[in-house]
């Protein structure tokens, strides 16, 4: 069957306002002078995954709700400029937005504007089904209303992935995503026992692969009932920002998966893409390209022999 795209990304479109602060947590003060400036740019989790996949040569399409507002136009322009297809469902509440406080070490604190969605928001089923039927794979962001799209997506038979981000292993909001996806990404940031959580994800859902990312400590891969450690890859330049590293990891991993690579090499691709993302300031969106990723992955494999 012919497919129109390799990956459909559902949800996660929005705009971030980046503020570089002297430290995190930020001590209380009446005011701070931000010498580097305060900049608003398009790009949240779904945008970063879509752009990362496209930069690696995969035919990528993005579906989400956007407002008829300046933030929505920033998102539309980003996709036009990068050649990523975008299907927009009108969002009367406005485009999702957040403020990211970024510390000197690249860590970030995100403040999400929860007012820009409604509980009744839904993707039209005919649109969702048609886009999924035309894709080899669907990556679902854990943003509203993507959870309501999961039954339709599963019904199409297409494989699904999701990123639970800094899930604590208990929050019920993440459960529908965790149970529906064939490939699950999660950060170890709030997990007391990452391997136990990873195995529970397999036992309670459909996941055949679980990846727990651990920042500078690398990642843990659960595949074929075996957990292995994937070392971190040295960034190609100084680390300036961790924003988008997890999204880049997911894009690199999915690139490998859709290229027919074994899970271990997919995780290496993810580590390379994630390391690259850490060298890109939060005010920019610049994903690793296919040639760079393959070259750095080959170098990393040679170093481990």
TrEMBL record:
Entry keyword set: Kinase, Transferase
Keyword Transferase applies: yes
One Pfam family named in its UniProt record: PfkB
Ranges of residues in domain Carbohydrate kinase PfkB: 6-285
Stretches of the chain forming a coiled coil according to its record: none
Gene3D superfamilies: 3.40.1190.20
UniProt-recorded name of the protein: Carbohydrate kinase PfkB domain-containing protein
């Amino acid at each position: 069957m012919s497919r129109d795209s390799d990956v459909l990304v559902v949800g996660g479109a929005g705009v971030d306002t980046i503020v570089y602060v002297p430290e995190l947590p930020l001590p209380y003060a009446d005011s701070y002078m931000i010498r580097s400036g305060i900049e608003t740019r398009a790009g949240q989790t779904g945008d970063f995954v879509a752009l990362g996949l496209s930069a690696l040569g995969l035919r990528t399409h993005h579906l989400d709700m956007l407002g008829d507002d300046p933030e929505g136009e920033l998102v539309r322009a980003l996709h036009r400029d990068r050649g990523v297809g975008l299907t927009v469902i009108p969002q009367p509440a406005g485009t999702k937005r957040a403020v990211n406080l970024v510390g000197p070490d690249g860590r970030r604190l995100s403040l999400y504007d929860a007012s820009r969605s409604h509980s009744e928001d839904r993707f039209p089923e005919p649109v969702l089904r048609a886009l999924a039927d035309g894709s080899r794979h669907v990556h679902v962001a854990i943003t509203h209303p993507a959870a309501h799209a999961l039954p339709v997506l599963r019904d199409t038979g297409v494989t699904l992935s999701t990123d639970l981000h800094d899930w604590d292993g208990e929050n019920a909001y993440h459960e529908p995503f965790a149970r529906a996806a064939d490939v699950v990404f999660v950060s170890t940031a709030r997990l007391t026992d990452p391997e136990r959580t990873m195995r529970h994800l397999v036992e309670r859902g459909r996941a055949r692969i679980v990846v727990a990312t651990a920042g500078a400590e690398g990642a843990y891969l659960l595949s074929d009932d075996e957990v292995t450690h994937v070392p971190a890859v040295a960034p190609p330049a100084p680390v300036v920002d961790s924003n988008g590293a997890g999204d880049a990891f997911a894009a690199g991993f999915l690139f490998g998966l859709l290229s027919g690579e074994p899970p271990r090499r997919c995780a290496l691709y993810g580590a390379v893409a994630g390391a690259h993302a850490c060298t890109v300031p939060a005010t920019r969106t610049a994903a690793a390209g296919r040639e760079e990723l393959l070259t750095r992955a080959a170098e990393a494999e040679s170093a481990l022999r």
